[in-house]
Each structure stands twice: as structure tokens, then as C-alpha cells.
Design goal:
By secondary structure, the protein is an all-alpha fold. It has seven helices and no strands. It folds into two domains: 53 residues, no CATH class; 108 residues, Orthogonal Bundle (Cytochrome Bc1 Complex, Chain D, domain 2), CATH 1.10.760. 49% of the residues lie in helices and 0% in strands. The structure holds heme C (HEC).
Length: 166
């Protein structure tokens, strides 16, 4: 039993020393154009998913109507488009970021499958260590819901709303 505990402690010490030497080596990826750290994507995605999951229950206090979708367009054009792109124009600045901001009006980047409460949570609180800002001190609750409704209906927007996106 003693040997087992000693082996267990030494195992953890070796992991921590190895990780420390790796980050001190000057070869760990810190530039935005290098790949992720080992396990970085797994830990970041798992932590984000676990934290955000309860927000799936949040219901929008606003209905999906053209006033709110146009309100969402105003918010999006001024606060989001330069990172998340527009329907026919991907963001140039996104190419230099890590992680890359998803292009929210492309088939691959849309969040239309996410419950609107999850999108609202991300807009309100931001995503740490990613460049995604928290907007709770910049936008009103109404504006955050409007832009969240816009994104969750990005694949079925009325033509006039789509045209109002820059
Ligand atoms: C400075 C750049 C930047 C701005 C401005 C920005 N975002 Fe983001 N956003 C990001 C990045 C980077 C991510 C990816 C985070 C990650 O990979 O975990 C992200 C992620 C998201 C996600 C999650 C996407 C997914 O696939 O789950 C949503 C939703 C989102 N942003 C909405 C918005 C909205 C709405 C605005 C404007 C109110 C906005 N963002 C403004 C950089 C930005």
C-alpha cells in the first residue's frame, strides 16, 4: 500500500514537473498562429459546456418578430460583425485570432442548433481566454436577447432582415 501511494505521488510530481518544463521550454504554442496546447481544446470545451449548459433553460422574454430581428441586426452590425462576419463576407480579423471567432452566418459557424439561452449566456458573459467579450455592461438585456434571437434564426431570416446585415 505504501509503495502504491509513493508511486502515485511520484507520478503526479513527474506530471507537474514535465508540464512546468514544457511551458518553460520556449516551445509551447503561445502565438495565435500556432496550434493549441496539448489537451487545451478538450479542457476548454468541456469546461465551457458544463458551465453554460443550465442556460439552455432560459427563455427569451422577447418574441421573434421583425422589430426584434431588426434590433438584433443593429446590435450585430455595430458590435459583432467585425469578428463574426456577415452573410456574404467573412471577417478578415478573425483569421488572425486563436481560437477563431466562428462566422455566425455561414453553414459551418451558425448557432441555430443551440438553445437561444445558451447564445444569450455567451453574449452576456463572454468566453474567457478566447477574445469573445462579455457585453453585459455595454448592451441592454433587450439588445442581448435581440441579437441572440437573430443568431438562433440565422438560417431562416426574412429577406429584408438579411439585407440589413452589412
Ligand atoms: C473581438 C472579437 C469578437 C467580438 C467583437 C465578438 N465575438 Fe463572439 N466570439 C469570439 C470568439 C473568438 C469566439 C470563439 C470562442 C470559443 O471558441 O470558445 C466567439 C464565440 C461566440 C459565440 C459562440 C459560438 C459557438 O459556436 O458556440 C457566440 C454565440 C458569439 N460569439 C456571439 C457574439 C455576439 C452576438 C457578438 C456581438 C454582440 C460577439 N460575439 C462579438 C470573438 C468575438
Amino acid at each position: 500500500m505504501k509503495k502504491f501511494i509513493l508511486g502515485w505521488i511520484l507520478g503526479w510530481v513527474a506530471i507537474f514537473v514535465g508540464a512546468f518544463l514544457y511551458v518553460r521550454s520556449g516551445h509551447a504554442p503561445v502565438a495565435t498562429n500556432s496550434g493549441p496546447l496539448p489537451m487545451e481544446t478538450f479542457f476548454a470545451k468541456t469546461a465551457l459546456h458544463a458551465t453554460v449548459a443550465p442556460a439552455a433553460k432560459l427563455k427569451s422574454p422577447l418574441p421573434v418578430n421583425s422589430d426584434n430581428l431588426f434590433g438584433g441586426v443593429m446590435v450585430y452590425n455595430h458590435n459583432c460583425a467585425f469578428c463574426h462576419g456577415e452573410p456574404h463576407q467573412n471577417s478578415k480579423i478573425a483569421e488572425g485570432m486563436f481560437p477563431r471567432p466562428p462566422q455566425l452566418f455561414t453553414a459551418h459557424g451558425m448557432v441555430t442548433d443551440d438553445p437561444v439561452g445558451i447564445t444569450f449566456w455567451k453574449v452576456k458573459n463572454g468566453i474567457r481566454l478566447s477574445g469573445m467579450p462579455a457585453f453585459q455592461s455595454k448592451l441592454s438585456q433587450e439588445q442581448m436577447w435581440q441579437v441572440s434571437l437573430l443568431l438562433s434564426h440565422a438560417n431562416q431570416l426574412p429577406a429584408a432582415v438579411g439585407a440589413a446585415l452589412k
